[in-house]
Structure formats: C-alpha cells, structure tokens
Amino acid sequence: MLYANPEQQTATELTFFEPQSDLDKLLLEEVANSEDLKSILTMLLFDETLSLTLKRQVKHQLQQLQ
C-alpha cells in the first residue's frame, strides 16, 4: 500500500509499534518509507528478544505488503 502522506502510512502500516517520543515517531516514518521495509520487518522475525505477539504482527504486516 502506498500513501501520499508518509505519516498516514506510518500510522496505518506500523501501528504495532508504539513510539514513546518524537524521535521514535521520526524513526518509524523513516522505516515505513524505506525501500527496505520488507527486509527490516523480516529481520525482526529473527530477533529472539521479541514477543510472539509482536512477531505475529510483523508477519501479518509482511503479508499485507505482498
């Protein structure tokens, strides 16, 4: 899904991340607009420190991107 407004894309596509600061929001916007979004989300699936719930959300997001 592509959106004209990057903030809308971040709010819609990466809602499973809860930014704690303005810097977090900027980082999420950067990631959401990255050409490597699929690669970034795939790397998160291999992170052993993430909860199963978050990994399911990441996997769901990857499926939506395809």
Query: What general outline do the C-alpha atoms trace?
Result: globular
Total DSSP helices = 4
Ends distance? 9 Å
- Overall radius of gyration: 11 Å
* Model regions low in confidence, pLDDT < 50 over at least 5 residues: 1-12
If you average the pLDDT, what whole number results? 80
β-sheet strand percentage: under 5%
Helix and strand sequence:
HHHH
Please tell me the total number of domains.
1
Helix content: 55-70%
Number of strands: 0
Derived structural class: mainly alpha
Verbal overview:
By secondary structure, the protein is mainly alpha-helical. It is 64% helix and 0% strand. It has helices spanning 6-13, 22-32, 37-45, 52-65. Helix 1 crosses helix 2. The termini are close together.
